[in-house]
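dumping this here so i dont lose it again. seq + smiles for zinc ion
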Amino acid sequence: MNKSWINKSRWSHEYSKGVEDFLNFVNRSKNQSGKILCPCKSCINRYFHSIKDVKEHIMTNGFFTGYVIWNQHGEDHQVEDVGAEFYPGCKRFSKLSFILHLFHLKCLNSWTARSFDMLLEILIEAFPEGTSLPKTTYEVKKLMKAFDLGYTKIHA
Ligand SMILES: [Zn+2]
């Protein structure tokens, strides 16, 4: 994700475009009351605010420039990829939510890793071009671990 806008003038087009991108990105990390941690210069991820208020804060106070990896908003090394839609135009699932559903089925029905690999293989072939799915059970688990989704809990 491009973050160069953070250091641009708050009145520039790039800045407001960047803010929009950020807000779209963090839309997924809302808490139960629909709020997110505010990364503006005065809140510095200490307070939760509505998306609307966060936007206002970022526009008026500026974005906290030390906040380079948006880990408080769901970003880590793989997040840009995972937060992406499952395939272009897919409204029902994100890549991650689809994988979670799939993996849950695997656990419920005690599919073997090998059978799950085979399923992934045919799904990758069947879905539209641009679909991002891990290719193996191992990759799925790695992904879930990276997001601390507690696959061990699901597994138990
Ligand atoms: Zn703020």
